[in-house]
Specification:
2 helices, 81% helix, 4% strand
Length: 100
């Protein structure tokens, strides 16, 4: 292949990779935002005991909120790690090509 064809192929794959990184980061951020909202709603919700002695509270929002926070953080960490790993690998390959 000639040099221009290789450049076009590399640019296309870089665009796809950048789009996937953006989508993954936005998904992770949205999950973390939902987790924060769940925890805020839990903190602002009213807890009371009715006349029959039954406690009314939204306890389920605590584990759900932390689950969303954890999932969002994991997605963002994996996306960032993959991005840094690929960037490092490209720099190493560029350095090897300069030596040749």
């Amino acid at each position: 292949m000639n040099n221009m064809t290789e450049k076009l192929i590399n640019d296309g794959s870089e665009t796809k990779r950048a789009r996937m990184n953006l989508i993954s980061s936005l998904t992770g951020g949205a999950l973390m935002l939902i987790g924060f909202v769940c925890l805020v709603i839990k903190g602002l919700s009213v807890e009371y005991i009715d006349e029959t002695g039954l406690l009314h509270e939204n306890f389920f929002l605590i584990p759900v909120g932390f689950l969303f926070l954890l999932c969002g953080a994991i997605i963002i960490l994996i996306t960032g790690s993959c991005f840094l790993w690929k960037k490092h690998r490209q720099q190493v390959q560029a350095g090897l090509q300069k030596q040749v």
